[in-house]
Amino acid sequence: MSAGHEEQRLFQEATDRYLQRSAGANTTRGFSAKRWAQFAEMGWLGLGLPEALGGFLTLHDAMLLMEKLGAAGLREPLMDNLILCGQLLSSHGNAAQKAVCAEMVAGKTRLALAVAEIGSRHDWAELETTLDTDAMLLSGSKCLVACGQFSHYLLVLAKETDGTGLTSIMLPTDRAGVSMRHYQTYDGRDCTDVGFDRVQVAEGDVVGRRAGGFALLEQSMLHAYVALACEAAGAMRSAYMLTLEYARTRKQFGRVLSANQAYQHALVDMYVAVEEAQGLAHHASSLLQEPSSQMARWASGAKAFACADGRLLGEQAVQLHGAIGMTEDYALGGFYKRLAAIANQYGDADWHLLRIRELDQETPHGE
Amino acid sequence: MMADQEPAELAEFRQNVRRFIAHNLPTSVREKVRRGVLLDRNEIDLWERQLVNQGWFAPHWPERWGGQAMKPLWRMALDEELARNDCPEASPFGTDMVGPMLMQFGDDAQKQFFLPRIVNLEHHWCQGYSEPNAGSDLASLQTRAVREGDDYIVNGSKIWTSGAHYADWMFALVRTGADGKPQEGISFLLINMRTPGISIKPIIGIHGWHLFNQVFLDEVRVPVAHRVGQENMGWTIAKSVLEHERLKLSRVPECHRRLANLKTLAASVMERGQAIAQRDWFKLKLAALEVRLMALEASVLRFRRQALAGGRLGAETGRLKLRGSQLVQAFENLTVDVAGPSSLPYDPAAHLELMEDAPRPWRVATTSARRFMSRGFTIAGGSSEIQHNQLAKQVLGL
Fold it and tell me: How confident is the model at residue B227 (pLDDT cuts 50, 70, 90)?
């Protein structure tokens, strides 16, 4: 236990040192291969994955890293690689797929989750992409796939044409019939829409068992909600700190902004929101270690809070700054836009609130 | 817009405006405005020329300066119809700001040179008020004008200057005196943007659009003849606001436009086998915004009755600016939430053209940029904080 804590402490110190060194890059756009190599060198890509694949520490540590990533404003697809695809392959992949996971940990291979579709909105399991059950041909399209152009493998979710369920499949991005269209999101992430035109799939490409994809992805989605809640908590803190600093130094009407009671109260509200967001995200993350009936509830709670209060905090930070907060060159915009994007990524606030009510119906109170 | 107690001639006038728009506004421009796609300068110019030809570019101006002395209520109705029917927003700097200020405070030479060129669109104007260290606290501005013979030598910098990159002239507040209260040492100058020593740096907003600029003035020579009013009297001039402008700040017509757009979008996006428009969560959220809009409209109507009865509109109209700007932001956020993950893709080019054939995420790519732009509505033109201060002081007497 204490050895684990020591390892965790050393890792966090090294991470903080690295992020401080690269400070100023807090309004980054897009993917950087150079940074990715540094991530691999520092061991980030193995967080929470089995030692046999080169991993170390726990999933909770990976979530804490997401928070630091949010605070630093980095846009690399860590969530997709180590938290979504990494966890899926290491837990459910066959030997070849686990080998790919180990290559990811080493920084040689990158993975992307291809689940989202335009028509499914936040209900990720409502898919149109199909796997022809007999011929094993994959057809359909996915959107908002993280960094398709920099990825070597896609983890795709498709529904079996015989109606037995959803199947998850790992495919190399250069498989015949796979087409891509790349763009950036407004918060500066590289994204890709992917088309599958009768792509031939082999039995060995299936992750887990045929028609068993729903349960696997249900777990991944909980990871995604918590990872984004953690990232949002980090971005909220940075937006808050920038605003606090600005209010302390910017003078108007002969005094600093923070001398106004209206500003003090607004800053206190921001501070409370940051602490609550972090508390929720950390608790949700700690629950992921040992599956319980409360896990999904906390994951959606943390995400709903991140969506609603994170976006609101970003808006308030811009308001308290004034016009400077509206400019692309000032760091705040990057944090606000990331918070705005998280509010519509993997379920928005209302979707998660409804989800909590649905969970109540599925699992009566008291377990 | 609710239209109780409107004289019959006014209703008829509204009809005329709508007919004019139907005949003269190109469908492509109308569609761009409806969807919040950026217009290019040329499209705005062409539309403003149509208004000039119709006499509706500066209709509130007196006839001797090329207007038709239109009464405030008529002007409000005109503005409402233009906004409700997706017309490009005309720049207010010439016709509503510097023009009326010149009529009240300018000398004959200034009136005769500038007013006809505003009303015939020969000059485009920008506003040089804010500075890097003088935003809401405008009176602390530092750009200095020092008298040298028949000229002022101006040094300093203006910021958030909308449209400076295509303006011919700037009306600016500059410091000419250091004594007394900060407001007392400010003069109002008209500066030719082609004067040597002026440089313009574009400022890109968080929405990715170039709307603002920083204007640098380095030893810029401005003839004393281009000062409006007495030296050190600039603050009084800048404070004069047109009455009809006050009701326009409610943004009621553009909220209606956003409401209509939102309904269209919600009818086209599906969730769990239903159009979003049919989903309970959406119905409640939309209705809540509609009620806020109704409250705002009722307020505008009350102020309008007051104006109709001959009353003056004062500081209490500040609540229209406060609530209207917040309501626009609420509409924008709900629109983004309806678009959902499709609102995430961003391509600067997507804002410049309609993308009928594009895949769906790209067709709604402008939603996010419009939403980010609307954050500025509670900051620009008297921030919400300033509105609160003024309402507290002037209306509540605190």
Answer: very high
Chain A residues with CB-CB distance to B208 below 8 A: 186, 328
Long-range contacts of B8-14 (CB under 8 A, 24+ apart): B10/B73, B10/B74, B10/B77, B13/B74, B13/B77, B13/B78, B14/B77, B14/B80, B14/B81
Non-local CB neighbours of A261 within 8 Å, separated by 6+ positions: none
Residues A123 and A91 in one domain: no
- pLDDT value, residue A290: 78
CB A199 within 8 A of CB A139: yes
CB pairs A-B closer than 8 Å: 123
How does residue A66 score in pLDDT terms, banded at 50, 70 and 90? very high
What is the pairing mode between strands A206-207 and B144-148? unpaired
B83 assigned to some structural domain: yes
A132-171 pLDDT, tens digit per residue, is 999 999 999 999 999 999 999 999 999 999 999 999 999 9
Contact assessment for residue B82 and residue B256, using Cβ atoms and an 8 Å cutoff: no
Q: Do strands B125-128 and B169-175 pair parallel, antiparallel, or not at all (unpaired)? A: parallel
Interior angle at CA A258, CA A252 and CA A263, nearest 5? 100
* d(CA B344, nearest CA chain A) in Å: 5
A contacts of B379 (beta carbons < 8 Å): 318-319, 322-323, 325-326
Checking if the pLDDT of B222 tops 60, the result is yes
Residues A206 and A220 in one domain: no
**B contacts of A185 (beta carbons < 8 Å):** 344-346
ipTM rounded to 2 decimals: 0.95
Q: A-side interface with B, Cβ within 8 Å?
A: 116, 118-119, 121-123, 126, 143-144, 183-187, 191, 193, 251-253, 262, 311, 315, 318-319, 322-323, 325-329, 333, 336-337, 340-341, 343-345, 348, 350, 354
Question: What is the domain extent for residue A8?
Answer: 3-105
Share of chain B above pLDDT 70, in %: 93
CA gap B279, B270 in Å, rounded: 9
- Which residue type is seen at A107? G
d(CA A33, CA A272): 37
Sort out which chain B residues have CB atoms less than 8 A from A348's CB and list them: 337, 340
What tens digit of pLDDT does each residue of B284-296 get?
Answer: 999 999 999 999 9
Contacts of B271 in chain A (CB under 8 A): 121-123
Domain with residue A295: its CATH number is: 1.20.140.10
CATH number at residue B67: 1.10.540.10
Q: What is the distance in angstroms between the Cα of B245 and the nearest Cα belonging to chain A?
A: 22
Inter-chain touch A311–B281, beta carbons under 8 Å: no
pTM of the model: 0.93
Q: What pLDDT is recorded for position A367?
A: 44
CB contact under 8 A, A121 and B269: yes
Domain end point (choices A57, A83, A105): A105
The domain of B163 spans 125-233
Residues of B in contact with A144 (CB under 8 A): 341, 344-345, 361
pLDDT of amino acid B178: 84
